[in-house]
Amino acid sequence: MQDIKFDFNNMMSFNVGNRDGVTEAELRRLGPSVEKCHRHFRSVSENPISRLRLNLEWLMLPFQDKKVVEEIQKLGDEIGRQYENVLSLGIGGSYLGLKSAQEALCAPYYNEFLPERQKRSRIYFEGNNLDPAPLSVLLRNLDPKKTFVIVISKSGETTETKAAFDVVEEWLRAGVGAHYGRQVIAITDPKSGTLRQKVRQEQEKDPLSFRALPLLPGVGGRFSEFNMGLLHLAIAGIDIQEVFAGAQAMARRCSSPDLYKNPAYMYAALHYLACLKKGKPIVIFMPFAELLKSTADWYCQLLAESLGKKYARRMKKLEDNSESWEADRRRAINAGRTPVPARGTTDLHSIQQNNVEGRNDKTVTMIRVQAFADDVAVPQGKGLLSEKKFSELLGLAQEATEWALTAANRPNCTITLSQISPWTWGGLLYFFEMATAFEGELLNINAFDQPGVESYKNYMYHKLKKPGVPQAVAEMIEKRPVRRQVKFVL
Ligand code: PA5
User: What is the pTM of this model?
Assistant: First the structure.
């Protein structure tokens, strides 16, 4: 049976003490807020207009029309079997979920070994950094005629992805000729943005080029893996319906207002209390599975961009009974917790020292996997490790980490997956999405925007002379440069 369990014994005071652990009484006292937040979250997520306006449409993604999904599965299958390479361009929410899927659900070293990837395309990710080195190497070595390009950008404006696509497009044109656009799919906003415009222009010239898949309205980047990641899953040969089945099962478990029946709400409530009442604003996210390394990166974006907010939220009921939210600029609260990606057992020889003996300002979330598709055993005659399976040793290391943290009064919790499969991975992503959204409710912030990301973008756009940077922002950039004194540079 496929299963996901959330064990929070070590977040509780009976294991880590009253000062660092949450008490049952504290959970009880949070009860009325939990109920109120549940009612509110329910009411906005059941209202289709609010859902769209507030970017809550991600809740519906696992329940998408089966036919649409079948078509994407078929299209991806064709691409995956036809092309030697797929180059996927995107950043943030247009990248991290895909990377997480590939690492979790495909064989390790997928790109290196043809049988491991069942004769499908190698898949490379680019456009997620402005570092010129990796893209240069790829374009020097890939054959453009054998490479399919997916460019993913909701806005179409993101510098990293746009710059990479501009380079890749010319490389493709030079290597393939006039019909290069038939080897491109754009995943972007269905109506607006420069990438959508480009799709329209190219399709006018050649209707078979620049095919496009829409991003559904009301879905923000980091909550969109079950939308913009689908083609990638299909190319890699992953069963999308299984991913959805796992997410649906989790959605059902996370619909109860009762903390003790709703694992995502409980995760949110415990970390809300740990941060605000126990001084734990940092979370170490430590899967004990190499395959979940990128899932840790995905989670870090989800948590940091969703909850790291300056202002509280002001909610407005509109005449049509829907709701809108805006930042309450009179109430700066600087909410958020700092996520740190790690992995067991590698980081037990690294940041674990600090987790156990450094400042007691963090929680640790571990992920444990019960059964692995492949296992290795130490040969006979090798002392105390003789005939021990790696999976057994890994499980023991996780248990030991739990013990070491708990003995030092360091709150921690463990999510156990029966195995890593499309079903459990789908459920895991949905669990964290729901937990993050609900923590946003408890904090009374907007978990679905990212205004803080704009400031670096605005600076770059201003320096690149891109039209549209607000006048006030441009003035502030000019008036308040970073001051650099020679004596402070050694
Ligand atoms: O969560 C988000 O919305 C962001 O991280 C975006 O995904 C990221 O900035 C990329 O944006 P876009 O898809 O518009 O290129």
Answer: 0.96
